[in-house]
Amino acid sequence: LGWKFYDADDYHSPENKKKMGEGIPLNDEDRIPWLCALHDILRREEASRQDAVLACSALKKIYRSVLVSGASALQSNEPEKPGENRALKILFVHLDGPVDIIARRLEKRRGHFMPPELLKSQFDTLEPPRPPENFITVSIEKSLPEIVLEIESAIFS
Questions:
Q1: Residues 124-146: pLDDT tens digits?
Q2: How many distinct structural domains can be found in the chain?
Q3: Given 83, 89, 129, 153, which residue has the most CB atoms within 10 angstroms?
Q4: pTM (2 decimals)?
Q5: Which domain does 130 fall in, by range?
Q6: What CATH number corresponds to the domain at position 80?
């Protein structure tokens, strides 16, 4: 696509990486500042008219809302004031698949701070996207070319 690519894991704080490395799942308090920083990156790219791909485990609806709207998503009962940052237009791609396939892939990963033992906590936290969120669900059981084609079709349709 020629778009900038960001891996959200590169933006975790040293404290978050240490916690996960010790097998301790992150909580909302750990994740919200990280998600706000990711929102700021996406906002900066939008301001420079640059499309971007962000690989991120935005497991909960509130996490995806923070990516779209920043910290203002946390005060959702307050109406937006004129001139405030408007929501980013983000297509979320929910890569869906059986736990055993994901576990096998994690076992093959080397040099990453998150141990495979945390996979269960990720699934326990997961709130799959639902309407009216802007998303597609793609099966990880498809081939990589099929996955890419499905995502590209959704982006450009």
A1: 889 999 999 999 999 999 999 99
A2: 1
A3: 129
A4: 0.85
A5: 4-156
A6: 3.40.50.300
